[in-house]
Every structure is written in C-alpha cells, then in structure tokens.
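Example record

The entry below shows one chain as it appears in the dataset: sequence first, then structure tokens.
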Amino acid sequence: MNRMLFANLGISSEVHKMKRILVILFVCLPSLALANSITYDTKDGLLTGTNSGLVDRTSEVINATGFKGDLGKIFFSTGKLISGSVEDGGTFAAGGSFTLVGNGFDHTHKGIDFTGSFSGPVTWTLVTLSNGAHQYTLTGDVSGTWFNGQSATGFLSETTLAGKGVYNGDGTLQAGMLTLTPTATPEPSSTILLATGLLGVGALLVKKSSSPFKKAEWPTAHTSTR
C-alpha cells in the first residue's frame, strides 16, 4: 500500500507541475492572453498640465484583469488645450503619446506592453464636491499596438483632487482606470504553431508523470498484501 501511495503522490506532483507550466505559458504568450479586454487600475501619479497639454509620467499600475500587485507604470501626454482652461476644465487635442510599461510581476511581460496615443479629444472636467474641494477628471480614447504587434484601442479615466483651490498645474492622481481591447486576432499560422507547442509540452509532461507506475512494484496475485 505504501508503494501505491508514493506512486500516486508522484503522479499528483507531476500533474501539478504540468498545470503550473501551462498556466505560465498562457500568461506569457500574448497571442492567447490578449484575446479579451484587459482593465488596469492606477494610482499615485503626478498629473502636470499647462495649455500645451496634460502629462502623467508616474502613475503606478496596481491591478490588472487576473493580477494584483505592483505591475508597472503608465506614461502619457495629451495634445494642446483647444477649448476651456486648465483651471476650469476644458478639452485637449488628440495625439500626444501613451505608453504602458510592465515590470514582469508574476510572470507577466516585462518591458513596453502597449504604445500609442490619444485617438480623439481628451476631456478635462471640473466638479466641485460638497465639501468645497475641486475634483478634476481626465477621460479619453487611446489607440496603439501591443508588444506582440496586435492593434488595440482603449479608454483612460484619471481623477485628481486640487483641494479647495483650483488646479495650478500639479495634482496627485487619486484613482485611474485603463481598459485596452485588441482589435485584431492572431494570424492562424501563429495560433497553430503555438497550439502545437503547448500540446508538445503537455504530452512530454504526461509521459513523465506516468513513470511512477513503471517504477513502483505493484502487488500481484503472488505478492502478499499483509
């Protein structure tokens, strides 16, 4: 019985390893991982702004669909102010630049994940809260390319508080959210090659996981089980 138990334990360990490796492969391979929208939460950025545009170079990505932790940073700049004012709210032109950088947390991609720009006007909205504080919210659409070559579109929203005074060109990000959605699917040939590779890895691990049966001495009709 002990030998049977050890054999089963060996199989369980190999299956666990196989599942872990396959999960890592799916996370790291963008062809499959970027099939749906991904939502990122951001915080602690410093949003600076003038009539030339709004700039954020320090926002931290703290959550993403399926992941929690220190995931990376967002850097962006808008086009110039085209209506309204920085102090009272207005609209900034499309363009500028937008970059999402990952730090490799928990097997995610390390380096530039997404790069692009604002695809339409960026809205800068002022709301006066019940306590007299001034809250500014930036919203805008972005478009660009994932690190694997897929095109993507998205939407950014960031909120900052200026206290009871007006925004004077600097504001700490209170909360932010970015949603990115791929606009192109992987090429069939790439998907087939990827699937073949995954099946090969799975088959190899399954083969290895069967080895405890061969090595264990199973009881037979002529073996005492006492």
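Notes for this example: The two ends are 9 Å apart (CA to CA). Residues 4-9, 22-33, 211-226 have pLDDT under 50 and may be disordered.
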